[in-house]
């Protein structure tokens, strides 16, 4: 067997492994919307919403409650990732990655800004204002942003087939948002903050993926991801939550009430599912590229809608279903790309 054949076989194994990680990401991500939806009706978050709504209105109450939920989500994910790194014996690698701030770890801290206060908070806001199915499907636009940024920033290849897939995903996004807005315009009741949350999720995850792809040129994915969530926890627990408490919102009084067994169980479930969703997501980027990793991970929307229907009986609007199917079709077009086009992820 000659060297060229061996190289092609190794490339094919790498690509198949990358797609496998991205598919696992979709399943874990879809499951995460179950605890993400349930947590809104559990104490202390339901009582927090009611208490703040009396003084500041429903909109402000939902946003502030979403901040505390997102902060706890980041904390439980961080705990799951620390356990994961410990089992793999990667604490040493974690320390080395943290020390290499300029060439490496700075990218993960920047990614945490877009992934946490923008994407994950936006998704929780969309869940609170509109519902879990919409929140899941609304974020399906993120591979478009991630692919374009990765292309213009560090020259990651986008083939004609990938461009077609991106175009179909955009059409799906128009169906997801346009149909809902048109139906609510007629009723005169438009939850704009919920739609904004969906856009925040799509933009944030797309930008985060492109930034993380830069850091993963050097860093090991498990270590890099843990630093990304370390950054997010710093943002929530050292900056945003204290600022909201200073402004008069009862952040800490309700935060100390999360130790009820059911609430803790749901938060831990959210942390495990979202933590391993991110582990598999980050592992796919160096193997198949940011655009393709995000494109296949996009199947999470399909998984989430199915899980939400099976567990909660929520049937989404037909425009959301159509948009989701278009997004999945676009992802499938990217997924079935010839492996020869993936042997080199970056342009010359």
UniProtKB/TrEMBL annotation:
Chain ranges of the EamA domain: 63-174, 193-335
Recorded GO CC terms: membrane
Superkingdom of origin organism: Archaea
Transmembrane segments: 21-42, 62-87, 107-127, 133-154, 161-180, 192-213, 234-256, 262-281, 293-312, 318-336
UniProt keyword list: Membrane, Transmembrane, Transmembrane helix
InterPro entries referenced in this protein's UniProt entry, alphabetically: EamA_dom (IPR000620), EmrE-like (IPR037185)
Pfam families, A to Z: EamA
Keyword Transmembrane: yes
Record-given protein name: EamA family transporter
The organism of origin for this protein: Methanosarcina flavescens
């Amino acid at each position: 067997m000659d060297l060229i054949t061996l190289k092609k076989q190794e490339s094919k194994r790498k690509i198949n492994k990358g797609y496998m990680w991205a598919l696992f990401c979709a399943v874990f991500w879809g499951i995460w919307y179950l605890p993400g939806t349930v947590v809104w009706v559990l104490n202390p978050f339901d009582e927090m919403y009611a208490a703040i709504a009396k003084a500041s209105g429903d909109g402000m109450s939902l946003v502030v409650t979403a901040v505390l939920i997102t902060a706890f989500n980041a904390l439980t994910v961080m705990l799951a990732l620390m356990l994961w790194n410990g089992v793999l014996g990667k604490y040493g690698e974690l320390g080395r990655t943290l020390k290499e701030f300029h060439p490496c770890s700075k990218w993960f801290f920047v990614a945490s800004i877009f992934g946490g206060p923008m994407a994950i908070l936006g998704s929780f806001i969309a869940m609170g204002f509109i519902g879990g199915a919409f929140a899941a499907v609304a974020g399906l636009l993120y591979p478009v942003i991630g692919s374009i940024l990765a292309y213009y920033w560090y020259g990651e290849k986008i083939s004609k087939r990938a461009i077609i897939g991106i175009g179909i995903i955009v059409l799906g996004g128009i169906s997801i948002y346009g149909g809902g807005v048109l139906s609510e315009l007629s009723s005169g009741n438009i939850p704009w903050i919920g739609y904004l949350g969906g856009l925040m999720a799509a933009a944030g995850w797309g930008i985060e993926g492109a930034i993380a792809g830069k850091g993963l040129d050097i860093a090991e994915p498990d270590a890099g991801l843990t630093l990304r969530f370390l950054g997010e926890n710093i943002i929530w627990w050292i900056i945003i939550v204290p600022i909201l408490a200073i402004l008069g919102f009862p952040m800490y009084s309700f935060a100390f009430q999360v130790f009820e067994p059911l609430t803790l169980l749901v938060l831990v479930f959210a942390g495990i599912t979202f933590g391993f969703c991110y582990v598999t997501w980050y592992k796919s980027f160096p193997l198949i590229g940011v655009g393709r990793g995000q494109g296949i991970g996009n199947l999470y929307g399909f998984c989430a809608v199915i899980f939400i229907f099976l567990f909660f009986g929520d049937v989404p609007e037909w425009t959301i279903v159509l948009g989701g199917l278009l997004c999945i079709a676009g992802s499938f077009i990217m997924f079935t790309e010839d492996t020869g086009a993936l042997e080199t992820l970056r342009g010359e």
